[in-house]
């Protein structure tokens, strides 16, 4: 499915680093903008982006599609208030990502993501053991039955790569005078 409305993909603005408790290691979808951490932005704008970095675009795209489906505000409220919704929303995005990776012979770091899902990164969305066993099962399924036709996903990735724009300016949007 193609995204129905306009959206942007850009690196996090510099001021993001000054926001307490902000996370700059993960991509973030906020309303119609996908923000990329600097390292991921650099990889995706290099001549040959690696498979995993490209899979992150599909992960964020899954969140975007849900935002439109639910209505952004409703989605964010549920995401913030419900640990269960947060966990399942992440799993839905991870599933798309895993299918893409499995189809292209890539890898998925299960411990790393189980760690994040059970710590402050995703505001303790699940217990580590639950996250780890769920992810392990999903990854095994994806490897056992990877999608045979990835043309639609590949085309989405290409389109998203073409949409990445540099950050607007380099200074903070807060003006001190
Ligand atoms: Zn996510």
Molecules bound to protein: zinc ion
Main beta sheet: 3 strands, mixed
Number of continuous helical runs: 7
User: Topology as H/E string?
Assistant: EEEHHHHHHH
Give the proportion of residues in helices.
40-55%
By helix and strand content, what is the structural category?
mainly alpha
Number of strands: 3
How many structural units, i.e. domains?
1
Tell me the distance between the termini: 47 Å
Tell me the strand order in the biggest sheet.
1-3-2
Strand content: 5-15%
Computed Rg: 16 Å
Shape: globular
Average pLDDT across residues? 88
Uncertain parts? 171-177
Description:
- The model is unreliable at 171-177 (pLDDT under 50).
- This protein is mainly alpha-helical and 177 residues long.
- It has one domain (8-163).
- Helix 2 crosses helix 4 (83-103) and helix 5 runs antiparallel to helix 6 (128-144).
- Strands 1-3-2 form a three-stranded mixed sheet.
- The protein has helices at 38-44, 51-70, 72-81, 83-103, 110-117, 128-144, 151-163, and strands at residues 8-11, 28-30, 33-36.
- Bound molecules: zinc ion.
- Residues 59, 63, 90, 93 line the site of zinc ion.
């Amino acid at each position: 499915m193609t995204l129905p409305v306009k959206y942007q993909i850009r690196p996090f603005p510099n001021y993001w680093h000054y926001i307490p408790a902000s996370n700059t290691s993960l991509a973030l979808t906020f309303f119609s903008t996908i923000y990329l951490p600097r390292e991921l932005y650099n990889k995706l704008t290099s001549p040959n982006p690696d498979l995993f970095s490209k899979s992150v675009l599909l992960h964020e795209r899954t969140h975007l599609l849900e935002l439109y489906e639910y209505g952004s505000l409703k989605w964010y409220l549920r995401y913030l208030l419900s640990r269960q919704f947060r966990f399942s929303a992440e799993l839905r995005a991870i599933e798309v990502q895993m299918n893409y990776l499995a189809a292209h012979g890539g890898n998925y770091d299960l411990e790393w993501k189980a760690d994040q899902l059970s710590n402050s990164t995703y505001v303790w969305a699940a217990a580590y053991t639950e996250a780890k066993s769920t992810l392990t099962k999903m990854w095994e399924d994806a490897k056992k039955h990877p999608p045979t036709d990835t043309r639609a996903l590949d085309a989405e990735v290409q389109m998203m790569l073409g949409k990445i724009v540099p950050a607007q300016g380099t200074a903070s949007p807060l003006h001190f005078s």
